[in-house]
Amino acid sequence: MPVSPAPCLTDTEEGRRLAAVEAEGWHRWGPYLSERQWGTVREDYSEGGTAWDYLPHDHARSRAYRWGEDGIAGFSDDRQLWCLALALWNGRDPILKERMFGLTNDEGNHGEDVKELWWYLDGTPTHSYMRMLYKYPHAAFPYADLVAENGRRKGRNLPEYEIADTGAFDGGRYHDVTVEYAKAAPDDVLMRVTIVNRGPEAAELHVLPQLWSRNTWSWGREAWEPDRPRPLLRLTETGAVEATRKSLPPMRFAALQPAEFLFCENETNARRLFGAAGPAHPKDAINDRVVEGLTEAVNPMAEGTKCAAWSRHTVPAGGVVVLRYRVSPAASPDARDAAAFDAVLARRLAEADAFYAALQRDVADPDTRLVQRQALAGMLWSKQFYHFDVRRWLAGDPAQPAPPESRRHGRDSEWTHLNNADIVSMPDKWEYPWYAAWDLAFHCVTFALIDPAFAKGQLILLTREWYMHPNGQLPAYEWAFGDVNPPVHAWAALRVYRMDQAMTGNADRAFLERVFHKLMLNFTWWVNRKDAGDRNVFQGGFLGLDNIGIFDRSARLPTGGTLDQADGTAWMAMYSLNLMRIALELAVEDPVYEDIATKFFEHFLTIAEAMTHVGGNGTGLWDEADEFYYDVLSLPDGRQVPLRVRSLVGLIPLCAVEVLNEDFSERFPAFARRARWILAHRPDLAAQVSRWEEPGRGNRVLLSLLRRHRMKALLRRMLDETEFLSPHGVRSVSKAHKAEPFRFPWDGQTFAVDYEPAESTTAVFGGNSNWRGPIWLPINYLLVEALTEFGRFYGPEFKIECPSGSGHYLTLPEIAEELSARLTRLVLRGPDGRRPVLGDKPLFQDDPHFRDHVPFHEYFHGDTGAGLGAAHQTGWTGLLALLLQPRRNVAGGQVPAAPDR
After folding, report:
1. Contact 62, 272 (CB under 8 A)
2. What is the widest separation between alpha-carbon atoms in the chain?
3. H/E element holding 520?
4. What is the sign, positive or negative, of the torsion defined by CA atoms of 807, 828, 655, 767?
5. Which end of the chain has fewer beta carbons closer than 10 Å to its terminal beta carbon, N or C?
6. CA–CA distance from 134 to each of 174, 179, 605 (Å)?
7. Complete edge-to-edge strand list for the sheet that includes strand 241-245
8. ∠ CA 645-648-650, rounded to 5°
9. Per-residue pLDDT reduced to its tens digit, 573-600
10. pLDDT of 437-459, one tens digit each?
11. What are the transmembrane regions (predicted)?
């Protein structure tokens, strides 16, 4: 008889582990290896900042990394001192399969692109259980073919040449390699590798789980982790490997089936790369032993800083091979019983099932349950140890050649305070194996569904002194820490705070207060740095939407002057309201915060006024003729030119909305008095927002950039299927620009924006993402929230035609639900059994060994919903997990769909 799910996540065994995670150390080991350390900024010591060329894939097997490690299905401790990952060889490849292969930015016709197939299938927040799947072809991996054919497809209008196009998986001639981890205790890690031959013939496979030490000894003294003597792995008389490292208890690495242990050093093969003398048994020695058959390549003394447990298997057609390995404290019993090992995995899997049963207690559809669980697995697998000391990186290491002097004034040279060595949620551990500030805010909101403590920790971390610039700016990403992204962190902090309260029943005001004070510094930075002329109209720069505008918004304008951005200004209005709301929440127990809430209320009003009167000459960001918001180009001669591109830029003002309940005057009397005084004495400000004196449903008060007329006008555009509304969400650029591209001629050049529903056809920001037509989850999610919030004010009587022109009218919350349904249809199986995200490839749509493995892409085709860009960006695309969750069951606790605040 099935067991009823626990009423709340905290009542499950995994929930109890989460509650004790810090005290018991359950987060100490996890999936913290990158999937690509090569080609990153932090490993780049070139003069010109050519990171992809300085340490390419071909060097990765031979060169010791300075700042981190990578691997397939990698696990490590939270300082990445010991690393565990899987290597494979099919007997045909020119190299061991130790890491995922992909093209560099120059090699791909749409920028960098991984050319492997793997999926994150399961995981728990404490990493007590994790599972992922990798598909490895029987035939030689088509490295050269992928590079050559993509090189021939240099036109950005041509589709990418993918691994599935090579025929590598035809006839099922590949191995499914499933890697599971379970922790018997916080430091006792079990690794089970299950190999299934999907092909019609027997096939050989070499399996080499590797344990190694991150190299901390080749660079000169590490201030935070001095290594004298260096770490040591050595084979003991018991047939297991002992791992010793100063400051850590000894560990044991054991195989539960026969294996040959191979040893080398995690050090650079200087002879291969530079023609210089180097270690006798360098990092790629295991590769040379297995692939080249060079027995002398590995250390005959059976010791080193990197080792592998090598076993060879001939897997029959349809056959299964199961292999077991364990990393555990050397002081614990040397347990190698397969039945006991499997019992631990079975118990941890059952606990994972119970955890998700509690989360999904109100989710009846099996496919929805499967997709949501995979989305959350992707979030959990995308944690990474991120290590980067910018000052040390710029100066170079004492034991290495000095970097070019030009680096001291180059990339990130103004961020010398930044010194990171933390577990951080990554956007995608191959295509974006570095944190991105605004992505991380969305990650945290999704994480709060299952692990609010981790979500809170990430938001606090980003605002700590070793991340945030002394001037208050948040670091964008390692390619340019000084770039500017949308300020969504106050929004995220408030959502995480509420979801945490729903799960635990406790309001963590200390968290909210800590992050609030740091975000006030960031808000001040925005006001001082991004408001040219003190007009409360914001230029912003990149603002995260890559190529959405006609100009590169991070570069100097070819026209001169400034670009007054509708989205930059709306983001700041939203930021003001978010900080106002946080201040009011804190004022419940400390009335001092009412004054600060008033400050942000006034900021909001002045921003709203400025959007109507850019420069004081009557030109606004709102266009009355088109009934849409546009960026305005302010030229040096004083002219102001609206750039009439209909894009998400013009919809973001919808997101700046907050509703105050009718009792706010009694709860916050000082705030209410000041607000009424401002509105009475500054009618110019009062006129810019929805009427304060006209309370809505339940006598609530609406704070928004949009009065009713403008909101309805924007929604008419947004809900028009010939413009923004697709079957799978809101497009980033109106489809109307397909027939009528926007053109802006200037000084012999023509700058243009048209509707591009798939990959980018421009090289802006590397060409590997596209905001000119596809569907992106983060903005869509904010629009869903905004519609719900507007609905709290306007009530059930207020309806909008949806879709526009259909004659079908819905309330605003119903429109939010409709948009949510369209977005989740990207990944759910439709009535035809197909998932739009999988595109038109029969292999993915029809093959039973592929069709239920769901990728969470960076963005989606504006017409078909096919997944595009990074294939494992469950970072912000993980927001689908929230949209799949019934609105009344967020964070495992009963929460109103639109909670009173």
Report:
1. yes
2. 86
3. helix 509-529
4. negative
5. N
6. 10, 8, 53
7. 118-123, 129-137, 174-185, 188-197, 320-329, 248-255, 241-245, 232-235, 303-304
8. 65
9. 999 999 999 999 999 999 999 999 999 9
10. 999 999 999 999 999 999 999 99
11. none
Q: Taking the CB of residue 896, how many other CB atoms lie within 10 A of it?
A: 10
**Does the predicted model carry a pTM greater than 0.90?**
yes
Looking up tokens 């009694």 gives 666
Q: Which residue has the higher pLDDT, 295 or 246?
A: 295
Buried b / exposed e over 485-509, threshold 16 CB at 10 Å, is: bbbbbbbbbbbbbbbbbbbbeeebb
CA angle 410, 415, 417 (to 5 degrees): 140
Q: Which residues contact 548 (CB under 8 A, 6 or more apart)?
A: 645, 647, 648, 649, 732, 733, 753, 771, 772
Produce one character per residue of 13-29: b if its CB has 16 or more CB atoms within 10 Å, e if not. Answer: bbbebbeebeeeebbbb
Assigned token pair, 179: 């890697």
| Beta-carbon count within 10 A of 593 CB | 21
Beta bridge partners of 72: 86
The tokens describing 481, both together, are 């820490």
**Buried-state track 512-523, b at ≥16 Cβ within 10 A, e below 16:** bebbbebbbbbb
Tokens of 642: 């609206």
Query: Which residue segments constitute the domains of the chain, with CATH numbers given?
Result: 9-359 (2.70.98)
Q: Which tokens go with 27?
A: 């987060």
* Burial tier of 819 (Cβ tally within 10 Å: 0-12, 13-18, 19+): buried
Q: What is the mean pLDDT of residues 368-374?
A: 98
SS (H, E, C) 233-292: EEECCCCCEEEEECCEEEEEEEECCCCEEEEECCCCCHHHHHCCCCCCCCCCHHHHHHHC
Task: Examine the pLDDT at 830 and tell me if it is beyond 80.
Answer: yes
Q: What is the pLDDT of residues 39-75, one digit of tens each?
A: 999 999 999 999 999 999 999 999 999 999 999 999 9
For residues 337 and 54, give the distance between their C-alpha atoms in angstroms, rounded to a whole number. Answer: 46
